[in-house]
Design goal:
The complex is a heterodimer of chains A (128) and B (388).
Chain A (H helix, E strand, L loop, with lengths): L9 H9 L4 E4 L5 E2 L15 E4 L4 E9 L12 E7 L4 E6 L12 E8 L6 E7 L1
Parallel strand pairs in A: 6-8
Antiparallel strand pairs in A: 1-2, 1-3, 4-5, 4-7, 5-6, 7-8
Chain B lengths: L3 E8 L10 H16 L8 E5 L3 H5 L4 H8 L6 E4 L5 H14 L5 E8 L5 H10 L14 H16 L3 H15 L13 H6 L2 E3 L2 E2 L9 E9 H6 L6 E10 L14 H14 L8 E3 L5 H10 L11 H4 L15 H5 L6 H14 L13 E8 L4 E9 L2
Parallel strand pairs in B: 2-3, 2-4, 9-10
Antiparallel strand pairs in B: 1-7, 1-8, 4-7, 5-6, 8-11, 10-11
Classes of the chains: A mainly beta (128), B alpha/beta (388).
The structure holds zinc ion.
Zinc ion binds next to loops of chain A.
Chain lengths: 128, 388
């Protein structure tokens, strides 16, 4: 664990989402990716620009996790989802809705919240 | 280029044996492989060794030399790490080294100690095969990641939990006579469907267990085998490896495993065969859905059709293409770093005719082994053929 050290790029993104100004990186060929990046993971292009993250996306796939790692033990059950924002996808936990009511295609927006077990920041999604 | 022969194989029993160190496990498997091969251990030129969670499980890095020592060898030894494909990539590097003419006799293998970590600890250790920033910190677990792929598969192609249950039932059935398997008990569709969910839509019986164990293989050049009268009727005729983005969110598609597509294509081309030539396969079924993805990547089924193969009987013991006659990871067990070479060991015995399930495939002479790392960010495929 690197508890007291910021992770360049990643923590910047979390700060930005928290401030309501999420972003992603776009290469000259239009591929989206997430920081930290020095090269596009899809084509290797190094001319990456910061673009605004769309305000909402659709749940592409999800799982209700009942057996977790020790860092998430008190968070169970929780919903992990991959949300499609168009240029990029983001992985996080779906909150603010009963796990049984989560479905693919559900429109959600990104937030930063804390884990119940460790109080760590994480990306969450709430229905929009 | 020499033809690489499998001269001998060795396994420990797979299962819960938390008190055993990885060095003890590997010593048992390595010595068994050397004994099975008939090779003078003084002729072994190097050890290629796979292990994933040694630092977390027993505070032990730098396991290469430790494991060479454990089997009584004073040779260069290197540990390879590619999550659950660790000994698969070790195997591939050994095959290439022999083909390059840089060696005539090599020991390849892997070991993993997991149960001493407990379920939570092992879940944590396995999770680090995912992207730490974007997956682990969101609470993704290893079963959770495959659950995300399973739901994506169901949404794209159809399929049900019952289809997956047929895979679990099949692999448990296959393991019954396998003396090395962790679970040698039959299960029913109902039991599989009624088991608690661990990461929806996957339940306890969709998942492989937490396993301690080791495996090893002695590889020799054709010349060496001839010169020393080593009987080695199984050859490694094809090898391939593919890679993909680390995090699922960065993949093009969540219902397929492109890294395995690439590994299979390369291995088939290398061996000069096609999917149609394959008689039997050992694939990486860490979760039931993983067997589906694997068999489609290997070209046995069109996309979306692998899901019903076990239910329809195509991949069962009496089917036209038996998959995981050993019991697979699901029932044989999955000591992650040992799995790749365990598949090679099981396949070698199946093709030699001295496996408990060899009678299911009389006359079979082409087998394929598919070993995946993480959520198939890494994949290794090997083709084994009977060459007499
Ligand atoms: Zn690009």
């Amino acid at each position: 664990m690197t508890e007291n050290v910021r992770d360049d790029g990643f923590d910047d993104l979390l700060d930005a989402i928290e401030a309501g100004a999420g972003f992603y990186l776009r290469c000259a060929n239009g591929h989206g990716s997430l920081p930290p990046r020095r090269a596009c993971p899809h084509c290797g292009d190094q001319a990456l620009t910061q673009e605004p993250l769309p305000e909402s996306g659709e749940i592409e796939t999800y799982s209700v996790i009942t057996v977790a790692t020790p860092e998430f033990e008190e968070d169970t059950p929780y919903v992990t989802a991959i949300v499609d924002f168009g240029p990029v996808r983001l992985t996080g936990q779906v909150r603010g809705i009963d796990p049984d009511d989560v479905s693919t295609g559900l429109v959600v927006g990104p937030n930063i919240e804390q884990t119940a077990t460790m109080g760590e920041r994480l990306i969450t999604f709430r229905p929009r | 280029m020499t033809t690489v022969r499998v001269a001998g194989v060795g396994l420990t029993p797979f299962g819960e044996q938390p008190e055993r160190t990885a060095r003890d496990l590997f010593a048992e498997a390595g010595l068994a492989a050397i004994d099975d091969s008939g090779v003078d251990s003084g002729d072994i030129e190097a050890l290629f060794y796979g292990n994933f969670m040694g630092e977390m499980a027993e505070h032990q890095g730098h396991q290469g030399p430790l494991m060479a020592e454990a089997v009584g060898l004073d040779v260069p030894a290197t540990r390879y790490e590619a999550a659950c494909a660790s000994s698969g990539v070790a195997m591939r590097q050994a095959v290439r080294t022999l083909r390059n003419g840089e060696a005539d006799v090599l020991l390849v293998g892997g070991a993993e100690r997991m149960n001493n970590l407990g379920t939570a600890g092992a879940t944590e250790a396995l999770a680090i095969a995912a992207d730490d920033l974007y997956e682990v910190r969101a609470g993704m677990t290893f079963p959770g990641a495959y659950a995300l792929m399973a739901r994506a598969y169901f949404d794209e192609f159809g399929g049900t939990r019952e289809d997956l249950a047929h895979i679990a039932v099949k692999n448990h059935e296959n393991a019954l006579p396998n003396e090395y398997a962790q679970f040698r008990r039959a299960i029913t569709i109902e039991q599989a469907l009624e088991a608690p969910l661990i990461a929806s839509p996957l339940g306890l019986f969709d998942a492989c267990p937490i396993t301690d164990g080791a495996s090893a293989v002695v590889l020799v050049s054709e010349d060496y085998a001839k010169k020393h009268g080593i009987e080695a009727t199984v050859a490694v005729t094809g090898t391939g490896q593919g890679g993909d983005k680390m995090a699922l969110q960065d993949r093009g598609d969540l219902a397929t495993s492109p890294a395995a597509d690439k590994a299979a294509k390369q291995a088939y081309e290398d061996a000069g065969i096609s999917a149609k030539d394959v008689d039997v396969a050992e694939v990486h079924d860490c979760f039931t859905i993983a067997e589906v993805l694997a068999t489609e990547s290997l070209g046995f089924f069109e996309r979306g059709e692998g899901i019903t193969a076990a239910r329809e009987g195509t991949t069962t013991r009496t089917g036209s293409l038996p998959v995981n006659l050993s019991g697979g990871l699901k029932a044989k067990g999955h000591p992650v770093g040992a799995t790749g070479t365990a598949q090679i060991a099981e396949m070698t015995k199946l093709l030699r005719g001295d496996h408990a399930r060899s009678d299911a495939i009389p006359g079979a002479d082409v087998g394929v082994c598919h070993n995946a790392g993480g959520t198939v960010g890494s994949a290794v495929v090997h083709v084994l053929e009977v060459v007499e």
